[in-house]
Amino acid sequence: MDLPWGDPRSNKFATSIGLITSNGPHGHDIMACEWTHHLSYRPGLIAVSLGPTKATVENIRTLKEFGINLCATDQTILASVAGGYSGRDYDKINALKDLGFQFYQADTIDVLMVRGASLSVECKLFKEVKFGDHVMLIGEVSEAIHDSEKESLIYNNGKYWSLQEIDKPHKDTRQNIRDILKKHSKHSQQ
Ligand SMILES: Cc1cc2nc3c(=O)[nH]c(=O)nc-3n(C[C@H](O)[C@H](O)[C@H](O)COP(=O)(O)O)c2cc1C
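Above: query sequence and flavin mononucleotide SMILES. Below: predicted holo structure tokens.
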């Protein structure tokens, strides 16, 4: 069965928003990508799932490198512009500069990065995997800088949110969990 865009079941996922920066036939571009996932620690691999018609996909296929900038809570305008217009039709980078946002040249790739993101990762294209109606572009991390003052913006149910910490189970509850798990262990107790 399908799980379409906007379906209340699809809307249950909560994600961060990757601002994917690229360069290529469409010039410097930026798009919003809720489907941005950390896949591996060693080496650092991050996947982005993109609709195949996005200008960003053509850019990444050409240059074989891209930036992933996790949108911070004070960057909702960035997410809406990057996600609401295509680089086929608009120079979003210069529009965003006019809106007061700043970009800087990446160290290891020929792509612009977003100033003030919670995490900025430079990636070389590691693999492209086609599935369903999206393509997964996996990037190998070549540089990563985080800003400890910034929190990542959260996306859920088509809206922007900020994180709120919830207490882990109380230590008595955790002890009770350990006792119960011990009772159900699949290995004999020595
Ligand atoms: C919050 C948000 C999240 C989005 N997430 C994705 C995504 O995960 N994958 C995708 O293909 N498009 C996603 N989009 C839509 C693209 O960002 C949008 O189509 C954009 O215009 C593509 O830009 P480009 O054509 O310049 O590459 C999202 C849009 C918004 C507003």
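The pocket of flavin mononucleotide is lined by residues 17, 29, 31-35, 49-51, 54-56, 79, 82-88, 155 (CB under 6 Å).
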